[in-house]
Design a protein that fits this description.
This protein has 2 domains: 7-182, DHBP synthase (Alpha-Beta Complex); 187-390, Pseudouridine synthase. It has helices at 7-11, 18-35, 57-67, 84-94, 100-109, 143-154, 176-182, 215-222, 246-257, 339-346, 360-363, and strands spanning 40-43, 48-53, 76-78, 115-119, 134-138, 160-161, 187-188, 192-197, 226-228, 237-244, 262-270, 284-287, 290-292, 300-302, 311-316, 325-332, 371-379, 386-390. A hairpin with a 7-residue loop joins β13 and β14. The chain is α+β, with helices and mostly antiparallel strands and 395 residues long. The longest helix has 18 residues, at 18-35. Strands 7, 8, 9, 10, 11, 12, 15, 16, 17 and 18 form a 10-stranded mixed beta sheet that branches.
Length: 395
């Protein structure tokens, strides 16, 4: 996301002269981007929102993709409201019926943090409503939100779908800096997509229609030229790279094969691994050959006779306190199936919440696998310039 409106630019005592003019210019630019189908961060009375034109289904889909939010979870549509005539025009656009009690509530509490759930007008705001027959409408009282909504309405955008500007399941942001930090490093450009996959979502389709929903299918709905380069296990969260077009896919695949892509993970494991033999930076090595455990698929296992060479680096994450579990940083040198999980199990320290490799007490210690792809550094497929992307672990 390229632009977040900062409330301080409008509301600080010094917001006059050049500073105020810059804030107004930023608002005009935000309205232009929203009309063009882009996303913008904006403040409300409660938290910062991630906004899109509520009438552009593709723009609304970008919110769901950015937040990793299920597309059937409805979004609230924010409307302008300098006066009742202004908000009534937007309400009539989205709602097919406006009961008397709703009009009284609007008159009493709008602009303000009140959301009305109203019958949705057919053919309008379907994506924002999550496909439901009702739609949530709100007229925020925050002056920056209102300035943007009025600029949008003047440009023909009657409402902004704007859930909180955080990825699904994370803490809602209360400053512009929080929004930038939340989406820091994530990218979409003409050749490369860097995405943040939630735990529990497949990277690519599985067998059968019940396993059709996956990250690649969701992304390809927005970017038809997006192609898979690598994948994460369903239980693992974090950064996934996709290419836009065959040439970008070929270049990125070659970079992975030549080990010019460097990934780092965060994991929480049972016990306290012994860092004996660590280098000056605290990194230790696990070099155990791995092979698919065919009778017990999808598991893998250590096999000294038939396994492929497999190498993982690990160290205790800075600031980790001594206790029954340990937070680790992991770097796979090779990329075997379930490599990190099997290597840590073989070391005697399985990951918490690992339904394939952890004993029952360690599995029960977390409702999800505590493994997250937190950093990736790679050469851009067009420029070859090294770029690093980050995603903080949600645990």
């Amino acid at each position: 996301m390229a632009l977040t409106l900062d409330a301080r630019a409008w509301l600080a005592p010094a917001a006059s002269g050049d500073a105020l003019a810059q804030a107004q210019a930023a608002t005009a630019e935000a309205a232009r981007r929203l009309r063009a189908g882009q996303l913008v961060g904006l403040p409300t009375e409660t938290v910062y929102g991630l906004a899109a034109d509520a009438d552009q289904a593709e723009a609304v889909a970008r919110i769901f993709a950015a937040k990793s939010r299920p597309s059937d979870h409805p979004l609230i549509v924010h409307v302008a409201g300098a006066d009742p005539a202004q908000w009534r025009a937007a309400v009539d656009h989205y709602a097919r019926d406006l009961p008397d009690f709703a009009e009284r509530l609007m008159a009493a509490f709008w602009p303000g943090p009140l959301t009305l759930i109203l019958p949705r007008r057919p053919g309008v705001g379907q994506a924002a409503a999550g496909g439901q027959d009702s739609i949530g409408l709100r007229c925020p009282g925050h002056p920056v939100a209102q300035a943007l909504l009025q600029a949008c309405q003047a440009a023909g955008v009657l409402g902004l779908a704007a859930p909180s500007a955080n990825r699904f399941g994370r803490v809602s942001p209360t400053t512009a800096g929080h929004v930038q930090d939340e989406f820091q490093g994530l990218l979409d450009d003409d050749a490369l997509l860097v995405l943040d996959k939630p735990a529990g979502l497949l990277s690519v389709p599985g067998r059968g229609p019940e396993h059709a929903d996956c990250l690649s299918a969701r992304v390809q709905a927005l970017y038809p030229d997006a192609l898979v380069v690598h994948r994460l296990d369903m239980a693992t969260s974090g950064l996934v790279v996709m290419a836009r077009g065959l040439e970008a896919q070929r270049r990125l695949s070659r970079a992975f094969a030549e080990r010019r892509v460097h990934k780092r993970y965060i994991a929480v494991v049972a016990g306290q691994p012994d860092p004996a033999g660590a280098d000056a930076d605290g990194w230790c090595d696990i070099q155990l050959p791995l092979i698919v455990d065919w009778p017990n698929r999808p598991k893998s296992k250590v096999d000294f006779a038939l396994g492929k060479p497999s190498h993982t680096r690990w160290r205790v994450a800075p600031g980790t306190a001594s206790g029954p579990t340990t937070r680790l940083e992991l770097e796979p040198v090779t990329g075997r199936s379930h490599q990190l999980r099997v290597h840590l199990q073989a070391l005697g320290h399985p990951m918490l919440g690992d339904e394939l490799y952890a004993p029952d007490p360690v599995l029960a210690a977390s409702p999800r696998l505590l493994l997250h792809a937190t950093r990736v550094t790679l050469p851009h497929p067009l420029t070859a310039a090294a770029q690093t992307f980050n995603s903080p672990a949600p645990f």
